[in-house]
Amino acid sequence: MSLPVPYPAEFARQLLRDMLRIRRLEERAAELYGEGKIRGFLHLYIGQEAVAVGTLHALGPGDAVVATYREHGHALLQGVPMNAIMAEMYGRREGCSRGRGGSMHLFDARTRFFGGNAIVGGGLPLAVGLALAERMQGGTRLAACFFGEGALAEGAAAESLNLAALWQLPVLFCCENNLYAMGTALARSQAQTDLCAKVQAFKVPARSVDGMDVVAVYEATRMAVEQMHAGHGPRFLEFRTYRFRAHSMFDPELYRDKAEVEAWKKRGPIHTYSAQLKAQGLLDETGLDALEGEASAEVEAAVAFAEAGSLEPVEDLLRDVYTPERTP
After folding, report:
1. What DSSP element (H or E) covers 146?
2. Counting Cβ atoms within 10 Å, is residue 4 exposed (0-12), middle (13-18) or buried (19+)?
3. pTM beyond 0.85
């Protein structure tokens, strides 16, 4: 059951606006991939928007974020301009990683968005390192890392949870449990399917949250952030969510029943939340159309920016690959 929306109208609509921005960006990226304008790998976030929006709005300015290869929405909400994201997917120099990373490797130190990481579980130790650095420098900022449930089968996850608990580091572990990892159901890959129980073995407080409900996500994250700022060490949030599209654009998706996908779509975070706002008098159809129009316009402007972008000169292709040799 979705929670009532307890926020002022402006903030309540901002949550919807950001979910729409992510959704339209992802849908357009899929179209461009089909046209051959975006190449390489592309992993879509459609269906999981409530997780990125709820968590990123609850984090504070300057908190570090590390994500997976399904990270367009996280980068956008962390403050990476949509123009830079789209240009990166196009492989243009104007992209946030100068066109060298593509969809899977968005990065922007200015906004403290530290990837986009193609290695399953690879972001967890990075977040622990960022939190440790913050503590050693006397700061108060947090580090949040996003990962799928499949990452909890990796040794790096166990090591990261252990160190974060041992040193009581301010790391927020955000598990986006969409049930299938790359293409294998959770019960077929992990003996312990209660992810919170697994994490609590490391003495990290853990909570399971409805990841299809942006209000539930925001409230759970806000509470975890408050506890971490109070010095209570790391926190783990399991967001039970679902991706409506295949794992990647190359995935034939033979491992899920179509009826299951359709059942989850009925709980889609955008239409359920917008219905709540309408029922509570916080939004009308005209207002929804305006938000849709804004999101679409932003996406098309980003596409135009990417189309007008430039490719890296051939003579620069080895730039930053090797450290220049220095004479004594």
Report:
1. strand 143-148
2. exposed
3. yes
